[in-house]
Amino acid sequence: MPLTKEQKREQVAAIAEKLDAHNTVYLTDYIGLTVEEATKLRRAFRAAGVQYKVFKNNMIRRALEDKGGFDELYGQLSGPTALAFTNDPAGPAKVIKKFLGEVNKDLPRFKGAFIDGAIYDENQLDALTAFKSRDELLGDVLSLLMAPLHNVVSGLQAQGSNLVGAVKTIAEQAEA
Fold this sequence. Notes:
The protein is an alpha+beta fold and 176 residues long. The chain folds into two domains: 5-131, CATH 3.30.70.1730; 132-176. Helix content is 57%, strand content 16%. The chain has helices at 5-21, 35-47, 57-67, 91-103, 125-129, 134-175, and strands at 24-29, 51-55, 81-86, 109-115, 118-121. Helix 1 crosses helix 3 (57-67) and helix 2 packs antiparallel against helix 4.
């Protein structure tokens, strides 16, 4: 049964809302997966904190046109398309890559991604898996900031123990 105009508007609004809430969108082709495989894929996405949903290409195109900046993705809107929304740029890529290894199929097929204003095509899935998550990047920055402080504290502790040792030696010599 075809969607009414109101249902179409609601679907476009739902996609636009997800685009506003997430800085990363992946496009995939899921056709050919069994129901069991599709369920397993959805669970893997959910466990990774990724929202994965199938939309009609016309609805996706309207939402992307309304938001602007997605022109390079329009060519990927052919055949069945599912969108993965997240704020972790590497999350969906890692889920897809792992799933492809487990299922031994070429599905879901990665069509492209939009990450913080940059467009990635279907040939860049491996590069996307190498991206670090926000938490990993924060951990790296924190460890870089803490390293000099750790070095200063270690240096002071070492100097203090040397100074104490020298004072002890001098005191022992004075007593003798």
